[in-house]
Amino acid sequence: MTVLDPVSTNSDYTDNVYSGKQDHRAQVCAILEQEGSIPQHLIDTEVDWFYNVLGLDDMYFMLEAPTAVARHLTSLYGSQLSSAGQDNLISVTFQTRHESGAVFIHNSVPGVSKTEGPHFEQMIDAEYLDISVPQKAYRVESYRSRGKVSKSLDASLRTYFVNACDFVNPTPEGDAVNDIAQVSDRTFLAKATPHVLDLYGGVIAKVLCRSGPVIVSGELPNGGYRLVIGYRQRSTQGFYSAMSDLYHYYSMYSSRKYVEQFSNGVTIISLYLDLAKHAKKLTHSGAGSSTTSSNASPVLSAAIPHASIDECVAQIKKEASLLFCIPNTPFQTLFKTGELSVQEAVYANVGWIFAQHFLNRLGSEYATLAEILDPNDATDVEVLAKLKKRLRQETFTRELVLDILLRHRELIKDLYAHFAHVHYVSADSGSAVSKVADRLKADLHVSLSMTRLQDQEPLSSDELRLKITRVTTNDHDAMVMRALLDFNEHVLKTNFYQPTKVALSFRMDPGFLPAIEYPTKPYGLFLIIGNEFRGFHVRFQDVARGGIRIVRSRNAEAFSINQRTLFDENYSLASTQHRKNKDIPEGGSKGTILLNPDAQDKPFVAFEKYVDAMLDLLLTGETPGIKNRLVDRLGHNEILFFGPDEGTAGYMDWASQHARKRGAP
């Protein structure tokens, strides 16, 4: 994430002005009179309200035919009638798809994420933005109506206009790649002011020369903020809708937002943000006030009841990079409703993946049986192998682990606090509370998740073990929650709090691996988690060589098998390579990258993120705000040697060049 100098926002996009709006209105009135769905004496009043009071952007009337507008107006009128006296039940959802795009409309409460009904932003992500490439890309304009859908309901209409791009130069080369006049969509060029062209041109230049998102923010004349986020096409998924959940979490809303595509492979999202009314009430009430609102985010009001818009925007900028890495998780609903913060939800997702791979599922009984049976007897060995496979497959499924985590949200918060106090706050003198307080004073950009931690000392490992035993109701639940504590205790270094990143990486102490399953303890273990993949790197000596392998899955069943066996395969391959290297100074290592089911066509994207996230842990950050120094419990530098393997033979030149670009020795 890059934050540029504050930008002037006196001029940006030109307003949409529809010269034929009155004729359009007259046609709608004629259609309604003919249909008779609305009483004739109310037609003029309802149409005038829809065209002039509701405050829809003129683009809606430009794109929607009078017949469509008449249908929308009739549906809205019927919804208001059927929910008379129950305004909270008003639901408006319209969608129209055409060959080159779509129009979506729904009622929306400012600063609140939708948890029910059609999720249009997720549809836009999946069907248009996530698949956009220079050959076929889609731009989005979205507007919130200035008026409300009813007098007593604080909800407006949110419109989305999705259209295929028509680039000036679809295949730019040489200097044209950095020329915004060449790589832009023609509609964007017609609407953008010179200021916006200059701003976006600067963002594009930075996106093309570094990894991860680039963020520019600036204050608007009306007191709101504009947030501009640039990134490479197809480098993340579901990011547009995830960003909405993020600013809603901080009780902010967008009056309008744009997604622009460029033929050089860059996407730019522009958000126009302000505090929702309930958040403004909290802000104006002061630090010591107990004023609350039924619509307020429970986390925001509990953490910083007087948070200013500057503080909220700072939080969003800080956490956008984390969402860019993993925009959506199975814990997304808990994030939308404010039960978990962004960091807590992502941490829970990491813990879920860790537990899938490293829960000690064999138990002491298996160890006893292994001691009794003869390791030199083929029949005994086969029995043990089959038993081991069955225990791993049937004891803790992915679904069971997830269900357990979702039922223990308070423990997730405690475990996250335990993790954060080690890796977010540097280990120096003073109590944990004082360290957090000092950090808060020095850095207003600290997340609200971290702000919570100043309320009380985090629980120690022993206290957490006792609480897990007390809170959980059976051994399975306790084992899963203890797995997250094992994770916390064995993370030596992580980029979780690095301001810019493309995937999450963790340097682990391999001491948590049970000896009965992994008799030879590795020297080093890395866990890497990205939006498209999960991966490991294992080595059995400080200086070790080995390849990086891409693991693909033909179908969901194959992925399930691959994810269950991923680490075991990685461990075995590294161990085999180590034995092969017994006569040379270098030991053996191996890396694996398991592509997610929906990312089978993105092996290079996953490889890029895997390498860059590993470099975050190998190199010392020297640029505050971009690459900071990390909390280092390992205590010494490491150098890894990557080689080609299945699926990565053509990627190694890029890896070496990228490492050199980032300053690797």
What does this entry look like structurally?
The protein contains 25 helices and 15 strands. It is an alpha+beta fold. It has an eight-stranded antiparallel sheet with strand order 1-2-4-3-7-8-6-5. A hairpin with a 3-residue loop joins β7 (252-262) and β8. It is globular and about 95 Å long. The two termini are 24 Å apart.
Relevant terms:
alpha+beta; seven-stranded mixed sheet; 665 residues; 45% helix; eight-stranded antiparallel sheet
Which helices and strands occur, and which strands form pairs?
Blueprint: H1 21-35, H2 40-53, H3 58-63, H4 66-82, E1 93-98, E2 101-108, H5 120-129, E3 138-144, E4 156-164, H6 180-183, H7 186-191, H8 194-209, E5 214-219, E6 225-232, H9 239-249, E7 252-262, E8 266-275, H10 277-285, H11 298-303, H12 309-325, H13 332-336, H14 342-358, H15 363-372, H16 378-394, H17 398-407, H18 409-423, H19 432-442, H20 448-452, H21 461-471, H22 475-490, E9 491-494, E10 504-508, E11 524-529, E12 533-539, E13 544-551, H23 556-580, E14 587-595, H24 603-618, E15 641-644, H25 652-661
Parallel strand pairs: 13-14, 13-15
Antiparallel strand pairs: 1-2, 2-4, 3-4, 3-7, 5-6, 6-8, 7-8, 9-10, 10-11, 11-12, 12-14
Helix pairs in contact: 1-2, 1-4, 5-9, 9-12, 14-17, 14-22, 18-21, 18-22, 21-22, 24-25
